[in-house]
Specification:
With about 120 residues, this protein is mainly beta. It contains no helices and ten strands. Strands 2-10-9-4-5-6 form a six-stranded mixed β-sheet, with no helix packed on it. A four-stranded antiparallel β-sheet has the order 1-3-8-7, with no helix packed on it. It is globular, with a radius of gyration of 13 Å.
């Protein structure tokens, strides 16, 4: 059984930093990618960043490019999202998911999904 579990999240003031991590078990990831997605209040879920598991190629949405960094530890089956220079519009529920390719970082194309973590950025 595939299990996706996020940790981290919480509240921070604008301009601050926060990290998220996500561990996957029950699925060999070499032929997949992992991604972070978020759902702002009252909005649709959107792709934030994805990374190919084998080669480490990355994708970032325009809204987070230059501020967020995705990385992975293949030995630990864990993917990370370091979020810097956070803005109130980054507030939302953040999910980790398996995706078919790093450049297919769409909320409509996710595989197994975690429960999510709330990230709140106050102004």
């Amino acid at each position: 059984q595939v299990k996706v579990e996020e940790s981290g999240g919480g509240s921070v003031q604008a301009g601050g930093s926060m990290g998220l991590s996500c561990t996957v078990s029950g699925l060999p990831l070499d032929d997949y990618a992992m991604g972070w997605f978020r759902q702002p209040p009252g909005k649709e879920r959107e792709g934030v960043s994805c990374i190919s598991w084998r080669g480490g190629e990355t994708f970032y949405s325009d809204s987070v490019k230059g501020r967020f960094t995705i990385s992975r530890d293949r030995a630990k089956n864990t993917v990370y999202l370091q979020m810097n220079s956070l803005k109130p519009e980054d507030t939302g529920f953040y999910y980790c998911a398996v995706v078919p390719r790093y450049d297919a970082c769409s909320a409509s194309g996710t595989g197994p999904l975690g429960q999510g973590k709330q990230v709140t950025v106050s102004s």
